[in-house]
Amino acid sequence: MQAAPVRATAIPSFTDALRAVESLLLSSGQRTARRNAWTSVLEDRRRAKDRVEAQHVLERVLEQSLLTRH
């Protein structure tokens, strides 16, 4: 009995499969625009998270300053 042959190439990930479909359906300019838009979305989310964190810090500082005044 012989062993099954070893697969030389890795099975593509779901992301790799999506990118392959994307490259078939969209021109390179559209792909670039979509990726740039997604990068912008991620940056907006990061900035929003940073704003919330800064707001919480400012609120804590304000609370501490009000408590030390009395």
Distance between the termini: 86 Å
| Overall pLDDT score | 87
Percent of residues in beta strands? under 5%
Structural class: mainly alpha
Topology as a string of helices (H) and strands (E): HH
How many β strands by DSSP?
Answer: 0
Instruction: Categorize the overall geometry.
Output: elongated
The helix content is: over 70%
Q: How is the biggest beta sheet arranged?
A: none
Low-confidence stretches: none
Task: Please count the helical segments.
Answer: 2
Whole-angstrom Rg? 25 Å
Helix/strand layout:
Elements: H1 14-25, H2 28-69
Question: Overview of this structure, please?
Answer:
- By secondary structure, this protein is mainly α.
- It has 2 helices and no strands.
What descriptors fit this protein?
70 residues; mainly alpha; 2 helices
Task: Give a short summary of the structure.
By secondary structure, the protein is an all-alpha fold. It has helices at 14-25, 28-69.
